[in-house]
Predict the 3D structure of the following.
Amino acid sequence: MHKVTLPLGVLEDARERRGGKRFAFDPLIPQKTALLVVDMQKFFVQPGENGQPGYAQGIVPNINRLASCFRETGGTVIWISSNFGDNIQNDWSVLMKEIYSPASSRTIIDNLRTGGEGFPLWPDLDVHAEDWQIEKDRFSAFIHGASDIEERLRAAGIDTVVVTGTLTNVCCESTARDAMMRNFRTLMVTDANAAASDADHNNSLAGVARVFVDLLDTDELISRLVGSATEGA
């Protein structure tokens, strides 16, 4: 798991913007809150796959703990997967033809599509039948046309999302930034997101902490959700 070290100035600046409060989004109402688990697929989690050093495996226990707490307190658990078909070559040609090499593009398409070897969720994840499963075809699940997550959340009366998964600095950060800008109260869990290095992870969290999200760890989130559920009982 990553060693989380954020610059003190970032956290102080975030607190000042929140009027001296640590959290902008307080209280958390479980029934209006969803746990988003982003791209915890074999392609991203298996060490050696896509160059991953294995940090994503380390967050699996925390994601499972959070998912269990969300279900017990009345929240919603959503497993989000990347699904790229051949059409992505033209629909997202800037990434697939200009930023990525032909070999890299082919690897992504071969793995991150229905039936691809890297497409399934990591087998150690505790997925339940009542959980939602959503597919996206961009880094962010909330960018226009990438998925139907926004419509489904609004229909369910959910206004708060908690972002976990991998990679912290790519799909998780992109999803968190866009969720906030689509007017969802947004949080990220410091020890339930994973990147390719400590530096990538910490720089990403520091980048969103000031304005876009509330940051907290797994134990803090569970405590807040259980506390809210107990008060509302």
Observations:
- Residues 23 and 95 are 35 Å apart (CA to CA).
- The longest helix spans residues 218-232.
- The longest strand covers residues 185-194.
